[in-house]
């Protein structure tokens, strides 16, 4: 699969848990990856808005996590412009789980204002994370607001505690909702490996290959039960066999990327599964 399936698929989130790499070390490692044989696998360097001053003048394409809610959107974008840092994406979690619809509207308004002020370019994608704890109907209404503004969704697929990992059924519902609204999405947290597995801490981890194949199946109209079954597939050979028969490059239009604090693990899995040419990983 050398048809663009893996291009810019893994956003480098090395500074986030559980990696927690010091930012200057992480930035240097990311820059080195940009010149490696597998450079096209690597997407943006993910940082917090509070990290931008530390990266003044660096030649890195950044996805910036806005930490202060809707009110900080213009500030984050404006700081990047002022310090000549390439902000290639903004990611923001809705901060009011009791009213995610209202929170989504406030983010949309803040983005519109930042663009009107000229501090945020129109081409910069905005990824909005709706709290996974919301009731389904409320989550879907918030997703409607994201889609209506032509922004994107950010799906949280794991974390440091068991409750941060959505079930396969919940995740399949989120994928279906995104596709139904023609809304691209990225994923964050927990996707350390290609195939679903039990992590060392005892939590069930989703696989990024499972997610990509599930996106393709859902887009092609497979029943929700089939999508859930695919997300729960733990056998690498069976998953790869399914993947090889699908247009996964087309699925990337919707599942744009995922953040990982261990880019090398994703690379190792793609090589081991035979989905990436080993010759491309030779420095």
Written account of the structure:
The chain is α/β, with parallel strands linked by helices and 283 residues long. 38% of the residues lie in helices and 17% in strands. The strands form two sheets. It has an eight-stranded parallel β-barrel with strand order 1-2-3-4-5-6-7-10, surrounded by six helices. The protein has ten helices and ten strands. The chain has helices at residues 23-33, 73-82, 100-116, 136-148, 168-180, 208-219, 224-231, 236-244, 248-251, 263-272, and strands at 10-12, 42-48, 61-66, 86-93, 126-129, 152-156, 185-188, 197-198, 204-205, 255-260. The model has no long low-confidence stretch (mean pLDDT 93). The two termini are 20 Å apart.
Summarize this structure briefly:
This protein has 283 residues and is an alpha/beta fold. It has helices at residues 23-33, 73-82, 100-116, 136-148, 168-180, 208-219, 224-231, 236-244, 248-251, 263-272; strands at 10-12, 42-48, 61-66, 86-93, 126-129, 152-156, 185-188, 197-198, 204-205, 255-260.
Helix and strand arrangement:
Elements lengths: L9 E3 L10 H11 L8 E7 L12 E6 L6 H10 L3 E8 L6 H17 L9 E4 L6 H13 L3 E5 L11 H13 L4 E4 L8 E2 L5 E2 L2 H12 L4 H8 L4 H9 L3 H4 L3 E6 L2 H10 L11
Parallel strand pairs: 1-2, 1-10, 2-3, 3-4, 4-5, 5-6, 6-7, 7-10
Antiparallel strand pairs: 8-9
Distance from N terminus to C terminus (CA atoms, Å) equals 20 Å
Give me the strand/helix succession: EHEEHEHEHEHEEEHHHHEH
Strand portion, in percent?
A: 15-25%
Main sheet record: 8 strands, parallel, barrel
Helical stretch tally: 10
């Amino acid at each position: 699969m050398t048809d663009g399936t893996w291009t810019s698929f893994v956003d480098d989130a090395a500074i986030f848990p559980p990696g927690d790499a010091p930012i200057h070390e992480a930035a240097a490692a990311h820059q080195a990856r940009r010149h490696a044989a597998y450079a096209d696998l690597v997407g943006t360097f993910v940082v917090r808005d509070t990290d931008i001053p530390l990266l003044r003048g660096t030649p890195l394409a950044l996805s910036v996590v806005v930490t202060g809610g809707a009110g900080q959107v213009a500030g984050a974008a404006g700081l990047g412009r002022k310090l000549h840092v390439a902000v290639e994406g903004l990611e923001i979690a809705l901060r009011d789980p009791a009213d995610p619809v209202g929170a989504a509207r406030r983010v949309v308004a803040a983005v519109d204002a930042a663009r009107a002020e000229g501090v945020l370019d129109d081409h910069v994608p905005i990824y909005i994370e709706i709290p996974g704890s919301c009731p389904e109907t409320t989550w879907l209404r918030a997703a409607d607001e994201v889609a209506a503004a032509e922004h994107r969704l950010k799906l949280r697929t794991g974390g440091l505690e068991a409750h941060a990992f959505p079930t396969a059924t919940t995740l399949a519902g989120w994928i279906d909702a995104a596709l139904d609204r023609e809304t691209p999405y990225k994923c964050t947290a927990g996707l350390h490996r290609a195939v679903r597995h039990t992590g060392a801490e005892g939590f069930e981890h989703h696989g990024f290959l499972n997610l990509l194949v599930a996106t393709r199946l859902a887009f092609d109209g497979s029943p929700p039960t089939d999508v859930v079954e695919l997300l729960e597939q733990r056998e690498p050979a069976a998953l790869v066999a399914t993947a090889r028969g699908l247009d996964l490059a087309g699925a990337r239009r919707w599942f744009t990327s995922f953040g990982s604090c261990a880019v090398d693990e994703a690379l190792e899995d793609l090589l081991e599964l035979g989905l990436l040419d080993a010759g491309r990983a030779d420095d």
